[in-house]
Every structure is written in structure tokens, then in C-alpha cells.
Amino acid sequence: MNIHPMLEPFGRRPGEIFDRAAAFHLLSRAAFGGTPEEVAVFADLGAEKAVERLLAFPDQSAEEQAADDTPDLSGIDDLPRTFGEQRRALAGMTPDDRKAFQQKIQKANRELLMATGDWWLGRMDGGKFPLQEKLALFWHGHFTTSAKDERMALLIWRQNELLRKFAAGDFKQFVKRIGRDPAMLDYLNNNDNRKAHPNENYARELMELFTLGIGNYTETDVKESARAFTGWAHEGDEFTFRKFQHDFGRKTILGRTGDFDGDDVVEMIVRQRACAEFICRKLYAFFVTEEPDGILVRNLATMLRENDFNLRPVIGALLCSRAFFRPEVVGGRIKSPVELVVGTARLLGMRPPGVKRIMAALNQMGQTPFMPPNVKGWPVGRDWINSATLLARYNTGVTLAGLVDVDRIIPDAPADAMVDGLLERMIGRAIDPAKRAMLVSAMAGDSSKPARRRLAQWIAAMPDYQLG
Fold first, then answer.
1. What is the band of 321 on the pLDDT scale with cuts at 50, 70, 90?
2. Which regions of 251-312 does DSSP assign to beta strands (E)?
């Protein structure tokens, strides 16, 4: 294919320099920020090698990567310490014992979700593969499921692991597995989709929000696709096909007629030109700008189709593209609440305070992990800011910055050196000289620990810090 000039790798043309500011931008968007040491390492790699390193994660869940990397549930009384132990315990029980045990789990479900959220935030903050976690966050807002409607935290965690495993993998297989995911089957009622009474919820959202977008399918396509997904259900935490609840009759979907099942529907969907463009538009809006360039989206969609819907080449091309490093893109996107919290922790080298406080703050700002607001998922960009969330965002940033290890992060130095060093660490790009001058003036003659801590809080309270 002929690659659009703006999708060429950044750094190949005269005047394009992949410096520390560019590396900071890449790590802000494709990860959750980078320490000065990480920024320096990535700056030496150049854009293409830097993106290649970020994408060098296995198509595996966290548990598959390391058997002991699962949420720690040991603090919850009378329950096994891992989800794996829960599954094994349930498997060996009588029906009555299983029912009683599940009731105990449901009662503790809030704590289980809190522990799972703490585990995921920890992976975002200090995990080995930050881009994999960033993509898991993206897909969590795309293939939306909410813990508000799911009584089993185990199923929410297993779906989170599915998002991680397919984060940059085969999109066709990803969609097929999502259709079998127990949490999704519950959330969109496909567990109740039966031949006699087809439920259209999953089929509708599959086309409208997951793959095609409004205007690229008909009501008949939805109704007929719902028939194709009849009998797709789950027993406990495993998918099951209820043969006697499946409609084996002929169906007409997207212009084709046959005895189709759910996998056939997915295959037909990805053949539609609209599918690749829909996914690439979402990726562009998440990583680059909320107002995607239609020509670039179509170019990326062609790349996705030519790679048989393998996501990794497209994500790689997008993240090292000239479009990604345009001056108006750098520092031009409002951080999501999770990015703000995890990014502050990473940039200032701290572990956020207790998970309950962090979850409460994320809830005030509008993004609690595992609880998207509705089936449309999380907003992007400007929608994060409103009268209800703005104060919470500033307060959260200031609170976190107030926990900084001053001697380690902000060494005693002349005022201009302290200001420049901390601006480079926290914002990573030039700011208005008048704002810098105000910070230098405020720090003049006072390099005490409280003053240095206040400097971190002032920067966290700047509008510039809300952007990344």
C-alpha cells in the first residue's frame, strides 16, 4: 500500500528530531508516563525502535506471563487468596455448598473488585509492559462491561485478562472471544438469548459500538444476528453452547444468507470496509486526537485489512508516525482520570495512597476501573472536564504531589534549576515563560522541603499538567 506522508515514521525527514520531549510524549500516550531515566533511554532509541520496544509484549494474560501475577485477595476474610483458588474450590463442591460459597463471594464482591482494581493500577504504574496495560484500558472502554451489573468479580478479572491477551493481537479472534466472555454474556443479556425469544442486545452493540458504527448495518441485520447468537451462554466462568436454544434456521445478514452462527457473523462483519475504519478511528482518537483525520484513518484501515486484522502493525505505525508527533498533538489531549492518577504516581516515583481513596477520587473524576458509565464506554478528551470533575482533578493532582519524596525527586538547588527539573519531569515540554517565571520567583530564597513539595503541588495544579 502507499503510506500517507503523515503516517511515515517520525525522524526520517530533515528537522524531525526524536528528543527527550518526543520520548516524553510517546511514553505519556503509549504508557502512563516515563521517569527521566526512562525518557533518556527511549530518546536514544529513536521513534521506530522506541515503539518497537513498547510493543514487545507477549499476547498473553498477566497470569500466563507469570503464574503468581494475579490479584491478591488474602485480605478478604474467609475467602481463598486468589481467583484461581476460588475456581478450584467451586469445582470440588456439592451444588448446595457451591451455592452457599457463591453467596459469600457475592457479599464480598465489592472488596474483591477493589483488590482487582488495586492490582490493575499497580500493573499500570509499575508493570513490565505499560503499552499492554494502556491498550487493556482502551479495550475496557470499547468492549464495555460494568461491575455494577456483574455479581462475580472473578468474571470481571477474567475479562480484563482477555483484553490484555488480545490487546495488540488478532482482532477477528478478539471479537469472537468477547462474544463468549461470561461477563459480556451477562452484561448484554446474551445468556438469555434463546431461539424462542431472541435477545438483540449483544448483536446490536456488536455492530453499533464494537465493530461497524451506526449507518453501516440495518435493523434486519441486528435481528438476524441475534438469532445467530442464540444459545451462546455460560455456566459459572466457562462459555457453553446451549444447542437446543440455538436457532439453526437460515438467516440473512449483511447481504448474505445461510445457517449462520455467531462466528459467521463476526467473519461477515470484518469483511465490511466500515469495520476496519471504525476500529482505526477509535485507536486514532484514543492515542492521537479526538478529531481523527479521515484520510489517515482510511490509510490505517487499509493497513489493518492487509494485515488480516492483526492490530500490532497498525498500532506500531500510528505511534511512530509523523502525525503522532505533530506540534499540535503534543500536549494537546486531556488526560483521563486513570492517566492522571497513574501518571502522577509514575512521574513522581510513588505508590498512590490506599486503594479506597484512589478509587473514590477516580469515581469523582468519572473513571472508576471496571465501572464505565454505560455501554458506550469512557469519553475522550474534552468530555473529561466539566464543573463536577474539574475541582476533583486539581485536588487529586495536588494531593498526590504532596506525597512526593522531596529529597529523592527534587534535590536542593537554585530556584531556576529546581523549577526546570520538575517541569521536565512532570510536564515534559515548554510552558509559557511567564508561568515559569512565576514559579521561579515563588521559589526564590526557599529550598526547604515544604517549599519543594509545594512546587510539585503548584505544577500539578497547572492547566498544562492536565494535558498530555
1. very high
2. 251-253, 256-258
Q: Which amino acid is at 93?
A: M
Q: Decide: 87 and 237 in contact? Cβ < 8 Å.
A: yes
pLDDT tens digits for range 154-172: 999 999 999 999 999 999 9
Please check whether residue 11 is in contact with residue 30, taking contact to mean a CB–CB distance below 8 angstroms.
no
Strand (E) or helix (H) holding 238: strand 238-241
pLDDT tens string 198-210: 999 999 999 999 9
What's the chain's length in residues?
A: 468
Q: Name the H helices within 307-389.
A: 311-319, 337-347, 355-365
Phi, then psi, of 411 in degrees rounded to 5:
-65, 150
Say if residues 315 and 26 touch (Cβ distance below 8 Å). no
Cβ(329)–Cβ(288) below 8 Å: yes
Burial class (CB in 10 A: 0-12, 13-18, 19+), 68: exposed
Q: HEC string of 31-77?
A: CCCCCHHHHHHHHHHCHHHHHHHHCCCCCCCHHHHCCCCCCCCCCCC
CB 314 within 8 A of CB 284: no
